[in-house]
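Collaborator request, handled under Task 6.
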Amino acid sequence: MSERVFDTPLTLSGPYRAPRQMLATQEYGGHVSIHDDSMAQDLGFAGAPIEGPTHFSQFVPLLHQVWGRDWEEHGCLSAHYKNPVVEGEEVKAFVETTEQPNYARIWAEKKDGTPVLEGSATLGPDHPETALEARRKRLPPPEKLIILRDVEVGFRGPRGTVKMDFDQNLGALYPFTLLDKLEVITERSAWCTPEGGPQSPWGRAIVPLEMMGPLTQYTSHESQIPVRGPAVGLFADLEIRMVSGPVFVGKEYNIEREVVQLSESRRTESYWVLTSLSDPDNEKLVAQALLNSASLKDSFATYAEEAG
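C-alpha cells returned to the collaborator:
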C-alpha cells in the first residue's frame, strides 16, 4: 500500500490526446455496430464513437503518479459515459484526489469543455464506494422492458477461459490484436510491451487497462444472455477493478459472468454484467469488470409497437 503523507487535495491532468477508432468493422448479432459511421449517423450521432474503454488509458499515468505500482495491483476505475468522442477529437483526462483516503474523482472532457465521462478511482484491497456503486443505488427499477424482457437479474453464463496474447485477433467483436492496439494507444507503458514486459515488477507483460474491456467481452456471446435483437448497443458505464492484479499477457484465466442489474432510460434499456477473472492455478479472484450494456430502443424494429 502506498504511504499517504499529505491529505491535501490535488488535481492532475494529462495532455490532450486524439484516441483512435478500432471498431469500424465490429460485428455482433449479425450486423455492424454503432462504431460503423453509417450506423452511428442513422441513429443520430455525428459519427462513429470511439470505444469507451479506450479513454481509460489516459488516466493510468495520472493514477500511477498518485498510487505507484499499487494502482496496477489494486486499482479500480469506475466511469459513467456522458458524450461520445469521434476520431479526430481531442480529450484530456483529470484526476482530483480528495481528503478521503484511497479515493479520487476522475473526469475527461473535449477541448471545447464537453464532458466525455466522469467517475471515481479507488485503491484497494478495501475500496471506498465507487462511482458506479453509488450510481446503481440511485437507479429506479425498469417499468416495462421490451429488448430485455427475457433477461433476469442473477442470470449466469457458463464458466469459461480467456487469455490475451500479443498477436491474438479477438474476433468479430474486437477485430484487432494487442500489438495493433499498442501501435496507437494514447499512453504506452513499457510494462505492457513484449520488449519491456520482462522488466516489469512482476517479470512479465501486463494487459493495459483499456484492454481489460476487450479481454472480458470478446467471448461474451458464449454467455447467451437472452437479449432480443437485432438492436444496436453501446457502453454506458464501465468499471474495471484489480482485486489481485495485474492481469498478464499470455496467461489463461477462468471467466464467469452474472447479470447484476436491469435499468432503462428514455432512449435505452440496460443490463449490467459483472465479469470475474480468476487464476486457474489457485482460484484466486484477480480482476472484475462491471459493464452497463445499453441497447438503443429506436434500433429495435418493433419497439414502439410492443411498448404500446
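The cover message to the collaborator said: "The radius of gyration is 19 Å. The chain is about 15% helix and 30% strand. Please let us know whether this matches your experimental observations."
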